[in-house]
Amino acid sequence: MGELLLFALFIPLVTGLLSMFQNKVITIKSVNLVGSSMTSSVLACIVFRISAQGAFLKGLLYVDSLSAVLLTVVAVLSLTSMLFSLSYMEKELVEGHITIKMLQRYYGLFNVFIFTMISVLVVENLGLMWVAVEATTLASALLVAFYFNQSALEAAWKYVMVCTVGICLALLGTILLYYAQVNVVGINVQALSWLELKTIAFKLDPTITKLAFIFILIGYGTKAGLAPMHTWLPDAHSQAPSPISGLLSGALLSCAIYAIVRNLIVVQAILNHEFLQYLLIGLALFSIGIAIPFILVQHDIKRLLAYSSVEHMGIILLGIGISTPLAIYGALLHVINHAIAKSTLFYLAGIITQEYKTKHIMRIRGLIRTMPLVGTLFIISILAITGTPPFSLFLSKFTIVWASFNDGRFWLGTGVLFLLAGIFAGMLYYCLEMVFGNPGHNISVGKVGKPALLSILFSIGLMIVTGLYVPLWLHTLLIKAASVIMGGD
Amino acid sequence: MNFLIIILLVTSLLLTRVSRLKTAVTIILIQSFMVALACGIDGLEAGAAHMYIAAILTAVIKVGLIPYALLNIVEKLQYEREDHPILNVNSSSVTACIAIVLAYGLIDQALPGANSRDALATALAMTLIGLLIIMTRRQAIMQIVGLITMENGIYLVGLSATKGLPLIIEMGIFFDVLVAVVVLVILTHRIKLSGMSTDISRLKKLKG
Fold first, then answer.
1. Can you tell me the distance from the alpha carbon of B124 to that of B155, in angstroms, rounded to the nearest whole number?
2. How near does any CA of chain A get to the CA of B169, in Å?
3. Residues of A with CB below 8 A from B191's CB?
């Protein structure tokens, strides 16, 4: 198990290093395909063993059911994103938008980015987790700025600045938490280990812990794109190459939520539950609400998807905030579902923008005529992300809303349903315009690459399958993870 | 120790007044040197070996590599100055003073009776002043300088509250800070290369 974890960390690094020194497109592609499939299989092995055997701890490495849920996300997304990159970046290369040097840099950074996300999930220490989260920002910043044009530079600058300042506040919070720990047990080797913190949590000073958690929530909340700290998100997600947008939106935001949850598990033992619930639910509702006007009046297809991510992070936080086992189960399921659905949408948006050579919604018309397959898949994915049955997102959103009614929060549940209806209307309106509108002029359309199609069909398949039936291992894993968040083992 | 604290506060206040980028980088160099010194002195008092390493790392990274990278890029930005910050220099200085008072108030509220009250308040004030500089300055380099001030402040909070973090975490933080500055310098360089001014407030294509 320890070896598997080390493999999961080293394979992306080695793959990244190898792709930096290849001069042939075909070698770069095969190296990355092999590397990425290996990473994903190793991660899948880890997830299966954790769901069968329970938590694993060795030195600074730690994986339990909660991290396993997130590792599932990274395993699926790193594979689909890599498959999609193969077609997408080759097309960019053929059309002369990028050079072979840039391709090497792309795959190098891509793998470092995967490495940093995996490290967030496998360390057993709040301090090291901070280091890893900051590293994800830095690895992805140069991917956001990949084309180095004016908009990309602006987006990347905003991304690094806002997220680094945010994450610095999280560091301040982490230091305060350490201070609280030192006051209880003195300086020892278990510094900031969350297993240790959890056992002594009830002895921590409540005032300092509260202050620490507020800083941590603001800090990682910035990274998770929660309103009002979400300002960097639409810029970064719309400017990054599409496979990266999918990773940022699906995997990275989920990792940031994971960081919040890890801290939450520690502090909930000592802090007033009502205070935490109001804090989280308030932030969640604000994130869902603020996305609506931007979704209803949007001109850029990728920004539309980015604002939808803000909304979905809100939904996930809502589930965690309600904090009944059912709600948390729904939230965790939603983490997985949102990651798969949103990344698929970004891949499709990538194909569409490549063919239409614009991100402007007004100029994308008649997808169903120009690209029947892509148009159909796009409609399916939009229906999935807005929570229509039979897709898995319906299941998880339904579970969260159901949990809120079950918990006696009638108005909360009703309000959220109304907000979701608004978002459904906005997303579907633009989607139908793009798919069924009149293309006006003729657009010559190339073929969609096989790997890209494979990754999209694979993701949509997953969404339908888990929408109809949650596999038993995943079900048990989610239940165990929910109990970890509730404060169990 | 008090002497160091005074110098740290003075450097932070000075930062609100500079308009030449090179001066700002020099000030940040002095500030980081003081932080390294504070770390070394604390290590000497506590007799903790890991703090020497932390002090040396601070010196190498924040006094050596980061200012070097920044000075390098500033050389290329000869015509760039922070002439019209969003909040003018006098108001910035006054706000910075308010931040210091606020920091003392906050520390007395949150951690009453902490034995290193002055150091903690200074650290918090530096964090706030760093944030102020990031928010009210237009030049890319000034924003980086603000970020480093903020980071120095947070590092100092850790140093005075808990004698620093465990070494492995601290090394990670140092590495991150270094990479962050390198990434920002690369971005600044690219902004310059694409023929734009490094005045960040002029980058406003992305909206809505």
1. 10
2. 6
3. 153, 157
